[in-house]
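Friendly challenge for the regulars: who can give me the structure tokens for this chain first? No prize, just bragging rights.
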Amino acid sequence: MKRVVFPALITVLLLAGRLSAQDQPPGTDIYLLELATLTAPPLNLTRRPGYDNQPSFSPDGRTVYYTRIEGGQADIYRIDIETGAASAVLESADSEYSPTPMPGRPALSVVRVEADQRQRLWSIPLDGSAPELIFPGLEPVGYHAWARPGVAALFVLGEPHTLQLIGPDGQARVVAENIGRAIVADPTRPGAIAFVAKRDPGPWTIRELNTGSGEIASLIETLPQREDFTIGPAGDYWMGADGRLYCRRTASDGWRLMADLSGHGITNITRLAIDPAGRRLALVGDEPPGDED
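First reply, four minutes later:
Bragging rights claimed.
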């Protein structure tokens, strides 16, 4: 049995295979909010004990893809938002994480932990055909985002962790170091990838890589010591802290409290995703105590 320790699951995706009981990551749930009515109770999409995390929306906004760990195995699942039905996209002997729709293809890219513990980027066709290795020479991959077809930015584990840009030729180059785990394709700037630069001491900042020119620009400061964020289709930045949800429109704005979700049992907001139309937001919070349904 493969063994993994999760001392910093909030910072990196560590190598993981089939997990033993003591290795299980904390229980988390994925919640869905309507951005037009943030005061309405959020919908718990994954109400079950265990780890449900890393949400992403399908291009049509009707499906949420996510990572589900059950029985020590990490698999990629999908939820139909209209019906609430959950089903496996892929169940394999390996563990898969970070499902991300691939531009221009009916497929998801995932980080797969292979039998020999190599951690590389694979594609999972949504028609059920066999997964394919995307960038054979780049590892160990933790997280990723697509700038355009064939061009991706990847969080590569190491000392320090690096952001690496890779294209169809398979050649990767380091463009930043000491980065956070959130890597986000900016929907308002085609070809741009946003990430968090984690300076010590802070503040941490969201920066953006122009994958065409290679230039990097500083955008805004994050909430204190927070690394998970997403960007809406109008260019608005979203982050969470404890049970509170914040938004920031421009560099000159401050972070504005949009909703306090702690009254709904949501604590420790981490990963976030917004559907392409900007109607819904999915976020991850710690599993409520006693949630056995």
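The mean pLDDT is 90. The CA atoms of residues 109 and 195 lie 19 Å apart. Your move, everyone else.
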